[in-house]
Amino acid sequence: MTVQPPTKVLVISSDKEDLVLHLYETGFNVETASNVSEAERLIQETKFDLILVLSELAGDHGVGFCNYIRSLQISPRPIIVFLIDENKPEEKIEVLRAGADDAVSYPISSKELMFRVMAHIRRRQETHVTLLTGLPDAVMANNVLEYCLKEVNDWAVLSVDLDNLRIYNEAYGHKRGDQMIQALAAVLRSVLVEDDFLSHRDSDDFLLITKSDRAESIAEEICRRFDFIAPRFYTQKDAGRGYVVAVGPKGIRRRVPLISISIGITAKGRRNFSSAVEVLQVVRDMRYLAKSKNGSDWVSDRLRLATSESTQADKRIKILVVEPDASMSLLLRDTLEMEGYSVEVAHSPQEGWELIHSWRPELILLETEVEANGFDGWDLSRKIKQDSSYAGIWLVMSTKNPDHSKALECGADLYLPKPFELNILFTEIRYLLRARLRSKILL
Q1: Could you tell me if 113 and 22 are in contact, meaning their C-beta atoms sit under 8 angstroms apart?
Q2: For 142-164, how does the pLDDT look when each residue is reduced to its tens digit (9 = 90+)?
Q3: Selecting from 3.90.1170.50, 1.10.1200.10, 3.40.50.2300, 2.60.120.10, what CATH number does the domain 8-126 have?
Q4: Which of 38, 116, 244, 273 is the most buried (most CB within 10 A)?
């Protein structure tokens, strides 16, 4: 089932068969009413896009019915089209004065009526798009969410926005900032498949609705694609150093990372949602958690709910830190655990080798200049990569040795010469583990 709601039309007419048949053939979801009272009951139950009224059934030239529709708290309000006997042209003026959106002479060819209806629907949709990206606005997004809650059995919602956009606007100007927003919209469009829905709610706030089994993999792909194009929106100097210098009050300057994106994810069945507002609150909460991470990233509530069960195994990604310095190992352990990883520490290569056997990490952060009993970090890295059962473990080396070729020859997947900044280390670790994120493990 598509996550996008079908166009819903209400026909108020005593002779409906031919008209309804043509509306069905056009692909509309059609309901019928024989009188205004019946129609009002249906309107209370269903949010219609367009109401087609045979004027004779409305009474008082449609004034009362138009006033009723306009009094409802519905956004967007349904379009009101009256069918009027061609021998009563004065009634056209009356219904338009009463608030109808169109008055059509009846009888009319089914083909012309269908095209008139489609023109109204198209115009209605065009009034609810953002000018900057041409995507549906917040009103349409809320309607789609409400439809998903009531009618769709499988859906997931991604809330996406830019980090550090204000600083970028201050440094490069709002026009360039708008171009960055348009670039994000293009990235989001590029991952859509049939039946997905994308909305530009406000400023740099986007909402994507898809099937639940695609949510995390789509989020990962969005991060990858955006990070590939984002540096092109900076000067070569800023892109090369990886930050912008922001000037604050009294000339205070600070380094601000390049623009990245944060994504929050939830899906049907993970919580007892009763309204679109609740869904939006959850994905925004997840998005704010993603903002606590360095660089483009996403957070899903999938694992958060699963681990509430006492029997649920720990599914966090395992990282082994081999570091002889006690203070540095404690700093690395605490920071990595705050990032959501499961961490063990070894203070010697031999201790590290034993933990690899018993604990089996996905990634090892190894200080090579550590030795005990003639067995150093270089020996440990070779031993890991020569063992076929452990060769798939990611190996991140940190060393003062200036010979990077030695580290790579020993099997390093990532080589970091000391000294290095911790935020760079954690960003690189996250990118190495991207493939494992697709297994729906939450970081």
Answers
A1: yes
A2: 999 999 998 899 999 999 999 99
A3: 3.40.50.2300
A4: 244
DSSP label at residue 296: S
User: Are 145 and 276 spatial neighbours (Cβ–Cβ below 8 Å)?
Assistant: yes
How many residues belong to the chain?
A: 443
If DSSP codes are grouped into helix, strand and coil, which group holds residue 420?
coil
Mean pLDDT of the chain: 84
Q: What backbone torsions phi and psi does residue 342 show, to the nearest 5 degrees?
A: -95, 125
> pLDDT at position 200, please?
97
**Distance (Å, rounded) from C-alpha 434 to C-alpha 227?**
13
DSSP string of 6-56, one letter each residue: PPEEEEE-SS-HHHHHHHHHHT-EEEEESSHHHHHHHHHH---SEEEEEGG
Sequence letter at residue 37: S
Could you tell me which CATH class the domain 138-306 is placed in? alpha beta
Cα gap 250→146, rounded to integer Å: 48
In the sheet with 8-12, reading across from the earlier edge strand, the strands are 29-33, 8-12, 50-54, 79-85, 102-106
CATH architecture for the domain at 318-437: 3-Layer(aba) Sandwich (3.40)
Query: What residue spans define the domains of the chain?
Result: 8-126, 138-306, 318-437
Question: CATH topology of 138-306 equal to that of 318-437?
Answer: no
> Helix 63-71 to helix 89-98 angle, to the nearest 10 degrees?
30
User: Which letter does DSSP use for residue 317 in this model?
Assistant: P
What's the pLDDT band for 312 if we cut at 50, 70, 90? Answer: very low
